[in-house]
Write a structure and sequence with these properties.
Blueprint: H1 2-11, H2 21-26, H3 33-42, H4 51-85, E1 99-105, E2 113-124, E3 129-133, E4 141-145, E5 149-151, E6 161-162, E7 183-184, H5 190-202, H6 238-253, E8 257-259, E9 268-272, E10 278-282, H7 285-290, H8 301-307, E11 338-339, E12 344-347
Length: 348
């Protein structure tokens, strides 16, 4: 199938040149099966022609085709430029020294592109083209079309409030906090600080260290029937056993876990912190390997950033122990079982 397909591609005239690739190379049209049949029906015979005449005529045909192709390509380029510039806004304009983002291909996949920068505009080289200085590139100066550029906006960051003892996964659960424990940002004015304090007092049950419980959602762990994951517990260094015991007692007190007699068992991983405490993790990789996941479309980070590009204020909320706030379906709680040296625990 490949040779016939190649023949079709090579004999078809191209939109930009107006000629087929075969004709530009050999100076004549290709003779296919239908051409041979037509010549037989019409009883066409090749005229006697010596080699010198054939070469002269071939050169004349190639030269005429070349001249026509140059004109056709120039017109095609002008059409492409008009089509590409059609999406360029005449309102947008950059000045020398402006910082811009450039839409460049991803290093790992050339089919993906994302906004990189910021870089500095050096000069304008055309109505819609700009030369940009890129300090982190091998070629420092490069010309880009305005469709590949967008202005970089510097944003002021201001924290409304923060916990004085903030950790990676939220504050410690060793004690209850009060609204007065929240530190308000120094960048706020007196009026803004008063409004923030009033808001925190009004929603005192929300701004606290104790994790809440998500409403309207239950986490399900769908696995093949009859398949169970049972791993051996891993040896825990002596210096981490006391922090692990403290963390387990805290989780037990808050009702996050309870004793279990499950057939399932996954090991724990304790990640020490500089302050002597730990982040307790459960290694669910083998459970995840057999679990059935929902094909829910996750939002793309670059699209989210573009959606908030015109926003004046951007707010974020950090859930205290966010993973603890999602309840597990009762029939799947046994699959969350994890082991310590003496006890088997599971979510409850």
């Amino acid at each position: 199938m490949i040779p016939p397909l190649l023949f079709v591609v090579r004999e078809a005239p191209q939109a930009s040149t107006g000629f087929s690739a075969f004709e530009l190379l050999y100076g004549r049209q290709p003779r296919g099966i239908l051409d041979l049949i037509k010549e037989g029906w019409e009883d066409q015979q090749d005229k006697d022609q010596n080699l010198i005449q054939y070469v002269i005529q071939l050169r004349e045909r190639l030269e005429a085709a070349r001249s026509e192709v140059v004109g056709n390509l120039r017109q095609a380029q002008q059409r492409q430029v008009r089509y590409y510039n059609r999406g360029a806004s005449v309102v947008r304009k950059f000045e020398v020294g402006d910082r811009v983002l450039v839409l460049l291909p991803d290093r790992e996949s050339k089919l993906l592109a994302w906004w990189q920068g910021p870089y500095e505009v050096v000069r304008q080289v055309g109505p819609l083209d700009y030369e940009v200085y890129q300090a982190d590139k091998q070629k420092k100066k490069q010309v880009y079309h305005i469709n590949l550029l967008k202005k970089w906006e510097d944003r002021e960051c201001m924290y409304l409030a923060s916990w004085p003892d903030e950790l990676e996964l939220g504050p410690s659960l060793t004690g209850e906090s009060r609204p007065g424990d929240v530190e308000l940002a120094s960048q706020l004015s007196e009026d803004q600080r008063g409004q923030a304090a009033k808001l925190i007092r009004e929603f005192e049950d929300v701004f606290r260290e104790t994790p809440g419980e998500a409403r309207g959602v239950v986490h399900q762990i769908k696995t093949p029937p009859g398949q169970v994951i049972r791993e051996s517990w891993r040896r825990i260094p002596q210096r981490l056993q006391s922090p692990i015991k403290t963390e387990i007692e805290t989780m037990l007190e808050k009702g996050i876990i309870c004793r279990s007699h499950s057939d399932w068992r996954s090991p724990i991983v304790a990640v020490p912190k500089p302050d002597g405490r730990i982040c307790l993790r459960v290694d669910f990789r083998k459970v995840n390997a057999i679990a059935k996941f929902d094909a829910y479309p996750m939002p793309r980070v670059d699209e989210l950033i573009e959606n908030i590009g015109q926003a004046r204020y951007i707010s974020t909320l950090d859930l205290t122990k966010g993973y603890w706030q999602v309840p597990v379906a009762p029939e799947d709680q046994e699959k969350t079982a994890f082991t310590t040296p003496t006890v088997l625990w599971a979510a409850c």
